[in-house]
Amino acid sequence: MKQSMMLIPTLRETPSDADIKSHQLLLRAGFIRQNASGVYSYLPLAKKVLQKIETIVREEMERAGAVELLMPALQQAELWQESGRWYTYGSELMRLNDRHDRKFALGATHEEVITSLVRDEVKSYKRLPLSLYQIQNKFRDEKRPRFGLLRGREFIMKDAYSFHASQESLDEVYEKMFQAYSNIFSRCGLNFRAVIADSGAMGGKDTHEFMVLSDVGEDTIAYSDESNYAANIEMAPVVATYHKSEEDLVSLEKVETVGKKSIQEVSEYLNVDETKCLKSLLFKVDEKYVLVVVRGDHEVNDVKLKNYYDAGSVELASPEETKLVLGCSIGSIGPVATKSEEVEVIADQAVSSIINGVCGANEEDFHFTGVNPGRDFSVEQFLDLRFIQEGDPSPDGIGKIVFAKGIEVGHVFKLGTRYSEAMNATFLDENGRSQPMIMGCYGIGVSRTLAAVAEQFNDENGLIWPTNLSPYEAHVIPINAKKEDQRLLADRIYSLLQENNISVLYDDRDERPGVKFADSDLMGLPVRITVGKKASEDIVEIKIRKTGETLEVNFEKLVETISTFVVK
């Protein structure tokens, strides 16, 4: 393609609202443009990359036995009401009414639509298992869209769904999908990890996220420094052991701590280590109040709390609720002499080993010292309720935990019967009995994958596309197209590469060489072919974008040389 016919609006300056490399470079290199907050147009270069990612996805989905279809983005509210998510999904679901005042939602995900479709068309175990997928735009009303394509309100997603007559069948397909995802992200050249994850609003158990390692990632990965163990920090279990000190128990004493609210303030004021402090937080778990106690240097993991209670929602009690239930402010909460009998007290395992600790006294400006679990307060259960920390033992027993930031690009779920039971999606088994279909769900952020590749593959001059994802494999640049020998040789190269199925972008613009070279570096095509002073000798310069290596090549050897750098 000739560059004069393309829409590639490159920018010399970095847009002020672009915070991360991928967002900056995709804007500067003319791949995307913002239409509204979190809503982008994919310009021709980006569209070509997306098509290549989608091709890889389709090949691996077909290899895993999934069949493509396309479902509507506009979804009836009745389907979401059947599953119960119309009321629980939250404000991210974009809802609207048509002219007849019927309620709809723009598809944030398609569990309801696919379940209703298969429910109506599949009646027998003989039609199962069945795996279906689509590649489609999704809509989520993000409160704070940011980081370009990494967190938007409209994005491109591949979502697949599998239906089964048995758990064993689901397990088998789940493993195939897991392998397919590993293949997809490996073929995209990404440095990623598959991590144990929480299913969130999707429901289901046994889930994995595929995380691209990146300092700008919004998720924290906890992984072993000696094994393949990796999990989202929300899901990593703590297997640390705690030992009680040998000191004698002292009496419980209430002390004045005017203005001291945080663990750090209290520990410094009373000259005690944070590990001897008790941090108490009041949560509202569905409609029930739960007081969660952890060690002062630990943080409550609300996902573990939610999973323990199998709750629909978990949130911190508001200051007003805390005052009403416990009679004090948030900074004064403690488990000793909790006034309300309606409050259940649970604690992290580390709390059971604390001797002569410190906690809030449920009274403004006072704390208790000499606090001992069991003697001074009762606990319903000691559980794993905290976030894992760096240096903790790896849950698989091999090595220590270290942290890394990650960008989620894929997620696989074992949904079980969460949707089929709610929506009456059943089949007749071998004995003629009606059974709920067992489901799996598998999502890939296609546009997010594009951004993740851009985040990992760049330098100070621009993007550096892997050859199998690059919008074009070669970039032909005549230094001065007004010179006949350069123009004619560039034309011959353009035709030669096309004849040999090497995709090529031909910079035929009337621009200065410096502008052409800068734009070429920004776009990041794998091979640049510069036609210059030696055009009359049929000699050109090749530059490899990834390494910066340059070499002079005769026209006759051009295809052979380029082919060594272009991976088909």
Automatic annotation (TrEMBL):
One Gene Ontology cellular component annotation held by this UniProt entry: cytosol
Molecular function via GO: aminoacyl-tRNA deacylase activity; ATP binding; catalytic activity, acting on a protein; proline-tRNA ligase activity; transferase activity
Keyword Cytoplasm applies: yes
Domain Aminoacyl-transfer RNA synthetases class-II family profile span(s) in chain numbering: 38-466
Enzyme class: ligase
Keywords: Aminoacyl-tRNA synthetase, ATP-binding, Cytoplasm, Ligase, Nucleotide-binding, Protein biosynthesis
HAMAP family on file: Pro_tRNA_synth_type1
Family to which the UniProt record says this protein belongs: Belongs to the class-II aminoacyl-tRNA synthetase family. ProS type 1 subfamily.
Function text: Catalyzes the attachment of proline to tRNA(Pro) in a two-step reaction: proline is first activated by ATP to form Pro-AMP and then transferred to the acceptor end of tRNA(Pro). As ProRS can inadvertently accommodate and process non-cognate amino acids such as alanine and cysteine, to avoid such errors it has two additional distinct editing activities against alanine. One activity is designated as 'pretransfer' editing and involves the tRNA(Pro)-independent hydrolysis of activated Ala-AMP.
Quaternary structure, from the entry: Homodimer.
Protein's name according to its UniProt entry: Proline--tRNA ligase
Species per Swiss-Prot/TrEMBL record: Litchfieldia salsa
